[in-house]
Amino acid sequence: MCSTPLINIGKPRVKRKTKGIEAKDMPDRWYNWISNKISKGKTSSEKKENWLNRKLLADKKPYFMQYIYPAEKAKMNDYIKKNNEKCIMKFRITLDELLNKKNKTEDEKNFIYYYYQGIPLGIAPCTINKICWKIENIFKDRKYHTSDNFDYSILKSNAAYSPRLYTQIKKIYDTYRHDLSNYMQYAKSERIKSEERQIQKFIFKEKFKRQCLEHCPNEDILCNIVLDLCYSKSNCSKQFAWDICGDVFIQNLLKRNNYLISYPTLDENGDIEYSGLRFRMNTTNIKDMVEIETEDTQCPLY
Fold it and tell me: How far apart are CA 120 and CA 77, in angstroms?
């Protein structure tokens, strides 16, 4: 097993200016193995310091950071894939099979040693890495099946639209996808915080929703257009449809279910157990509540 630090902070960035002040580089001995080379010309105290630095060396980001930085995950996956191919060619077994093999030959042990030496992320058993591996082990054998047969017509309104109107909304939709994709790439490269991303996404949503309503003020017609755009023969995210007409979708679902909703309530004799508590399902008609809310939000016409 390679000597990997318990706490990794990754390699430092190059010099940069922060608020007019040039930030100093992190000392090489904190992250560079060669800088801590123990040579004959050094004093005993220097050798001791170099030895200690090598033990604490932060030459790699820890394993769990692949779930924070997509580039690190891609690097890790590529490394594992290439070593898996080498392992199959050399030993006729997969990398996982080799790692779990009980009686390994010297050649196999060497292969594993150099595999761990070159691994791009630190795999020391620090607390967060252990939590990460625990979660991975829980979900590794679980398979999730997505249904391609979702009948999105249950979200639709009873309204027709013209091809011309569909084309106008489609242009807005295409611009939305282009602008959002560009922003998300920019946000990743600049490591923009999640809160700032959410604010910008909200601004995008309001901007394009306003444009859609300017071209199509009738929300029932707009609802059907965005559903056909996002759900009919499209593998892209459905977020645009829900951003623009999510409230209308909910209204349509409630109408189809006669405004009945079911929800769990605490009940010590309930048939549903969760987190040490018992619940039972209740059903309520919320038609009056929905009608009152709709009336309050409607703008009178003059």
Answer: 10
| Cα(295)–Cα(302) distance, integer angstroms | 16
Do the Cβ atoms of 11 and 38 come closer than 8 Å?
Answer: no
Query: Which tens digit of pLDDT belongs to each residue from 8-23?
Result: 434 444 444 433 333 3
Instruction: Calculate the alpha carbon distances from 281 to 68, 171, 277, 287, 290 in Å.
Output: 38, 44, 14, 19, 21
CB 172 within 8 A of CB 216: no
Query: Using CA atoms, how far apart are residues 139 and 256, in angstroms rounded to an integer?
Result: 36
pLDDT at 129: 93
Each residue of 80-125: pLDDT tens digit? Answer: 999 999 999 999 999 999 999 999 999 999 999 999 989 999 888 9
pTM of this prediction exceeds 0.70: no
- Lookup: tokens for 78: 């590529």
Average pLDDT over residues 209-238: 91
d(CA 105, CA 41): 40
Place of tokens 């306003």: 210
